[in-house]
Amino acid sequence: MAAARTFRVLPGFNLTLGYTLGYMSLLILIPLAAVFLKTTELTWGEFIDVVTAPQVVATYKLSFGASLLAAAINAVFGLMLAWALVRYSFPGKKIVDALVDLPFALPTAVAGIALTALYAKNGWLGQYLEPIGIKVAFTPLGVLVALVFIGLPFVVRTVQPILEDLDTELEEAATCLGAQRWQTFRHVILPILLPALMTGFALAFARAVGEYGSVIFIAGNLPYVSEITPLMIITKLEQYDYRGATAIASVMLLFSFTLLLIINGLQAWTAKRTGRDR
Predict the structure, then answer these.
(1) What three-state secondary structure class fits 48?
(2) Are 253 and 32 spatial neighbours (Cβ–Cβ below 8 Å)?
């Protein structure tokens, strides 16, 4: 008796994998390889001089530091917002839910102009913040505000489906066993949400590192103060220093890739530890 054949919707593993690799190569691998190939036109000494220039190093610190901090802030408040949207009913809930996606649809330049108008010295909020010593526009704090704004939806939309599927009976059982609210959250809810929360953190961080449009307006682009790495790359390109631009881009790419590998490794370890990878 002939063995039953397994029906597959897609045309087999080999062909599907070939299409996938070809598509990824055209969109991702080949452009990234071109960046590294252009960088090889520099000698090792020239490369080190470009990527370790004091002004460039200052942009690394601001871009990666602000991106990590913004992603961490979004992980906390994005979880709180997702929790409110899933667990509670309140007037205007649908409007708030729609506003979460606003940074996705809003052009980054518009977001930057709006934030600058809001936090500038004579802005709606800036006119009250600056007299008490809190200056947002044209400072690293302004960069952080812009990165938090554009990264929040990634955390909310990643955590929200997990919360919707989370059975409230688990919380009720923990309460019946004598667990306090914090114990229930720490030992029951958080382990389930942690993989999704780390995914949202990684997505928010990745978006923040490469953000340009919404940041340059509110940052002020002051050297050694509020200048981000993407702006440094654009400046090099405007000066027709293509090798210098690709050198900085390659370093930024390596840093970002390494950090994302670490975050994804932690996510996989957490999922395995909590049994969510099954």
Answers:
(1) helix
(2) yes
Alpha carbon distance 240, 244 (integer Å) = 9
Tokens of 54: 């004091």
Q: What are the structural domains, with CATH classification, of the chain? A: 61-226 (1.10.3720.10)
Q: Which tokens is 258 given?
A: 């390494």
Residues 6+ apart with CB under 8 A from 191: 270, 274
**How close are the terminal C-alpha atoms of the chain, in Å?**
34
Where does residue 216 rank: exposed (0-12), middle (13-18), buried (19+ CB within 10 A)?
buried
Could you give the C-alpha distances from 98 to 36, 95, 125, 153, 163, in angstroms and in order?
A: 40, 5, 24, 10, 18
| pLDDT tens, residue order, the chain (278 aa) | 445 555 566 666 677 778 787 887 777 788 888 888 888 888 999 999 999 999 999 999 999 999 999 999 999 999 999 999 998 898 989 999 999 998 888 888 898 999 998 998 888 898 999 889 899 998 999 999 999 999 999 999 999 998 888 877 777 777 777 777 787 787 788 888 888 898 899 999 989 998 988 899 998 888 899 999 999 999 999 999 999 999 999 999 898 888 888 887 877 777 676 665 54
Structure letter (DSSP) for residue 222:
-
